[in-house]
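Researcher: Please translate sequence to structure tokens.
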Amino acid sequence: MSDIEIARKATMKPIGEIGEKLDIPLEHLHHFGPTKAKLSNEFIKSLDDKPDGKLILVTAITPTPAGEGKTTTTVGLGDALNKIGKKATICVREPSLGPCFGMKGGAAGGGYAQVVPMEDINLHFTGDFHAISVTHNLLSALIDNHIYWGNDLGFDTRRVTWRRVVDMNDRALRSIVTSLGGVSNGFPRESGFDITVASEIMAIFCLARDLADLEERIGRIVVGYTRKRKPILASDLKAQGPMTVLLKEALQPNLVQTLENNPAFIHGGPFANIAHGCNSVIATRTALKLADYVVTEAGFGADLGAEKFFNIKCRLAGLSPSATVIVATIRALKMHGGVQKGDLSTESVKAVTEGCDNLRRHIQNVKSFGIPVVVAVNRFSSDTDAEVAAIRSGVDGLGVEVIDCTHWADGSKGTEKLAEYVAQMADECTNQFIPLYDDSLPLWDKVRAVATKLYGADDVIADKKVRDQFQELQNTGYGHLPVCMAKTQYSFSTDPELKGAPSGHVLPVREVRLSAGAGFVVVVCGEIMTMPGLPSVPAANSISLNKDGVIDGLF
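Model: Translation complete:
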């Protein structure tokens, strides 16, 4: 059966019963129908003095077209922890509409390891992304309105850095000219759209601790510059108040359930390239107060997702993870070992062995943060025992277990061994979490630390203009911020064709962007697309309602 067919056969429980598993009183669940709800701010505040549970990160090897299965493993592990008697929940990101109607598809897990109601989660859900889009675009409207009515702040219209957003893949909006049509429409200028998940509002939303922190962060956003290069902030436009009002309800975490009726928080969804690629801090911190074990995930491979989870989310939110699961598939390792996608069903122990170079580096990288690691092999029916044995041989000497998982086909039953090992690993963790670099390290040296210690690069290069930008940010008080590396997810290098674990390469820095509200500096390496386009045959072509009013073609 397809993922959507499996999801439709699920017997969902009323969301109040799911809340009971985490001791959430019914009156503090704001219902969106019978199977979705938001938690009240009052209830979240009441949890402040409760101890935290154990935080478990699910990450992966470098992504390939063959797939890895982080979300599926996250859901399977959360279900299995509950199955073995632990009080556990999961925290994952909300899917974007762009990929759903484009090429990638949804992000609710798969097979018998899914969160439901799957169609709702992958479409409008509780309206969070719409609220974020409108909030972002309110600031855009306030900027152009201010310029129209006299421009008292002195915007240099060539240096307005705040674009607009929409939650859809639409390449025609990447570069536009606004305010055409005459004097009454304002002053024409170049601008563009990004996809909503690339908005700094999304990053702020996912890093804010509460509404007060959200408002303060929004006020810090740099929206443009004067002719003398003085930054203009959102607070200069008095934008932070109304923008926070628009996000008041959205900031409350969403509670849903897995196919096995276990609690799951789905909240926020920042880009894993130009942002940190994790679910919201408020959802994670709330879950840690309610459960003994919280399983969460970070976008892309560990070089991007886990690195940002540790160096940005954990640093800024004061989180201390207790265990990390690195997901690998035989198919992906074979691609890193040189096998083409069409030949992945043929056994190749040699390719798996060569592909383990990639896995080994990810293991070593994660362990450098002081976090214990286990490898979860997300098995496909075509995988052979000899290939799995090659993984175990490939990581021999690194002090990690390699555990077969069949959660896609078997649900929690296929992940029980992993759950038992992860629970023990988390319980024994002494919380020796150490970020890769200190806040006091200069921004340029932070970039070099990530490139040389995690990517295997020999050095970092940039032209004088970019180096001057680093120095200017350092001089104007932003040097203490963490760096958010924006590069291809398909390689440790900036060349997506360079598979495995390349070393000796040089990391070119093309651009630096300040996300002052989110609290990090984006370091752009290579070409990064913030507004995707649709493929030649988009997934939207296959999506429709059948005669019974049921969605067909979503998955």
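Researcher: Any highlights?
Model: The chain has three domains: 3-127+250-428, 128-244, 446-524.
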